[in-house]
Write a structure and sequence with these properties.
mainly alpha; 6 helices; single chain
């Protein structure tokens, strides 16, 4: 699998979630912000929600793409990796670039995949009376994301970038 594929897949799923939400959200009264209990604290229009969501998705995808490009073709002088002296040897730089590109694709792809929950949860909230976010599932998803990223980072630093 190409290292950029998870990033592309996450972006496609996120785009599909926005297209789906565009057909499901009401024109007005869309919750834009929620308190920790899931109660909306700000409302706006469907167009405002979709614009903000699209811009945020572009920001995440653009950052992931830019970092992917940087680690595959740019200078690695500012990239921090464990055992730097080992990985910066000319015979290992190619493998380091591939590994970093895979990691960027996975992390940003997973982030975009997680973001697909935002339009889905917002549509759910507009259908509930009174409007409310499904707090339990949202906290579960956020907890899994944080645990997944922390676990992946531990794996990266303790195992993946160990000299072979």
């Amino acid at each position: 699998m190409r290292p950029w594929f998870p990033l592309l897949a996450g972006a496609v799923f996120y785009a599909f979630s926005l297209v789906w939400a565009a057909g499901e959200l009401p024109a007005d009264g869309v919750p834009l912000h929620f308190d920790p209990a899931g109660v909306p604290t700000a409302f706006g229009s469907r167009a405002g929600f979709l614009t903000l969501a699209a811009l945020f998705g572009l920001l995440v995808a653009g950052t992931g793409s830019g970092l992917h490009r940087l680690v595959t073709t740019g200078p690695l002088t500012r990239v921090s990796v464990p055992h730097r002296e080992h990985w910066m040897r000319p015979q290992r730089v190619g493998r380091l670039r591939r590994m970093l590109a895979e990691d960027m694709g996975r992390i940003f792809g997973a982030t975009l995949l997680l973001l697909t929950a935002v339009p889905v949860a917002t549509v759910y909230a507009t259908r509930a009376q009174p409007p409310r976010l499904p707090v339990g599932p949202v906290w579960v998803v956020l907890t899994l994301l944080v645990a997944g990223i922390v676990g992946y980072c531990v794996y990266l630093t303790r195992h993946r970038y160990r000299p072979t």
